[in-house]
Amino acid sequence: MSRNRLCRLVLVAVMPWLGACASGDRRGSLPGDAGADGAPSIDERVEELLRRMTLDEKLAQLGGTGIDGMWRAPGVPRLGIPGFAMSDGPRGLWATQVASANPQKATAFPVGMARGATWDEDLERRVGDAIGEEARAWGANVLLAPVVNVLRHPAWGRAQETYGEDPTHLGKMASAFVRGAERHVISDAKHFAANDIEDTRFSVSVNTDERTLREVFLEPFRMTVEAGVSSVMSAYNRVNGTYCSENTHLLGDVLKDEWGFRGFVVSDWVLAVRSTAPSLNAGLDLEMPTANFFTPANLGAALDAGETTLAAVDDAVRRLVRAKLELEVRLDPAVPSLDVVGGPAHAALAREVAQKSIVLLKNEGNVLPLVASQLASIAVVGTYAGLARLGDNGSSSVTPAHASTPLDGIRSHAGAAIVQHIDADVLTAQDVTAVSAASVAIVVVGLGPNDEGENLPNLSGGDRDTLSLSPAHEALIQQVSAANPRTVVVMEAGSALTTEAWRGGVPAIVMAWYPGQEGGDAIADVLFGDVNPSGRLPLTFPVDASQLPAFDHTSAEVTYGYLHGYRHVERQGLTPAFPFGFGLGYTTFALANLVLSSTSLAPTETLRAVVDVTNSGARAGDHVVQLYVGVAGSAVERPVHDLKAFARVHLEAGETKSVSLDVPARSLAIYDVGQGAFRVESLRYTAFVGSSVADLPVQQDFDVR
Ligand code: BGC
Fold first, then answer.
1. pLDDT tens per residue across span 235-263
2. What is the pLDDT of residues 78-112, one digit of tens each?
3. Residue 343 and residue 335: Cα distance in Å, rounded?
4. Which residue CA neighbors atom 8 of ligand 1 most closely?
5. Which residues' Cβ are closer than 6 Å to ligand 1?
């Protein structure tokens, strides 16, 4: 039995919930065991600790103390209350800063957008579990992930960190991550809210009507709160003129009052907090990374001046302490060993995720999959082929112990075929000859940390001005495809790319995202058919940016309308290059026999749709079945199709399975601005089931009474 556990039990026996137990490990410890017979509840323990804390101790809880291996915020050692040790983030444990103290590296998973392309909630739960476990093994108790910001436009610099453009898909994927991560740490849904422009993120005011705010930008956060997230990070930007950290409507009215969120609100870093009393009163509980406005002196002065109240301080402290106690209670007492960090189990998971995230966009003449035994030589073209593209250099960056490049993966799958890497982005005449002589040419192109990413001082990144590849990469593709008709283009990036300039000239295109440390092998697994490609686009790939709402990353204020992404494209009657939900494979699937559990639903009920999915091709593979809802006669503008449910299913060749998709009627609600509440309209709805928003072969009507 650990010293801490023994100490806790003794305390419970002799002096329920009182007394201090000096922390012997990195997590610290807390007195008392919740749930044991006669033991106080967590809330009772929190209240008792609040009674025992001095005002100075309380005020010191509300601000961070900077970085020491990880981001820190104090506890109260005298009372056995541990501090916070926080680490990013969304694609793995951010171990860069601590690497010098301990050379062990962390697992670099595919970025969030890649994981969005898996449409696999259970897989994402496992990723959250793995990253949470690595964070705990490092000694962190807060993981600054997941990103729950709706991708309003693919030019957003941090697109790679989120899961996609659709609120329901995003909310489900982020909730799955939360369920996994919260087994080990406090996870943090960020950045609340409407934080989807990078270059002006510290100040821009995102102006939008209440319905758009609720249904589009807040709904995914609400879903993570429902999933049990313990903390929420307030964003840098303003919403309707008010900074998120002092936005009473967002933090108080919606998050804490309406949604009943019992966790704590932490600020985003450095520039997110602009005031003391207005922020505390609005509902900000903790200023990070250091106390600037939330210093004991400032807070004390605000109390003395009557600008805030002890009740507001107590509420913040209560939330911080409660989150720590709840974590302590749900944790497995055995702290995972550091061996899990970057260990083989997580590497295998990273590869599985990458395999399931890769989207086959085009495959004319079945150029793919490659059959190594039928190839004499493979020309692998481009500088990117020899690089492991893991994502940007911002707060989500992860340093893995190793990372496979596309070239590594292709080499290990090529069998006896000769692999020649042309390590250039402009071909010489000699290169062109080599490319034309090869049995197949694989060009690797895309974006990197200089093109998109978090915009931090001394870092490149930021938003994109164009959705296309660089002129150099477009020219390279054209050169290669002119020389070899069997050209496969592999793209690595965190968001949508336009392909019009060269798409017609190449038979095969693969979207690999930033595929993580095992990405090179996973790309080759797909190219050579070891796995059937099964990723589906979590965002629209437009023909060009004119098909989307404008992306303004320079103005002090922007106004958002209700529709973006596929909802906008469909309403405008446009045909994108590749629609939301789209992805090919090496086999085919057919959908039939859609049966609804009811054709007349009460607003409190859940519709169950059951559909038969058949693998009508010759190979085993996964399919992602998608259910969208449409409605006519609404009092307000509605999307033509609105994603409400999805499921990934594995089918052997020729196999048929029944897939169930649940749609709570509540998820059809609109936010009625007049009533200030969500309400489900009593109308006839249509459930459409298919393989992308543009391919919905089966449908059935149902009514909500
Ligand atoms: C980012 C957050 C991150 C924090 C700490 C901020 O600049 O916006 O996403 O968690 O830094 O690294």
1. 999 999 999 999 999 999 999 999 999 99
2. 999 999 999 999 999 986 554 455 545 899 999 99
3. 16
4. 268
5. 88-89, 144, 190, 268-269, 395
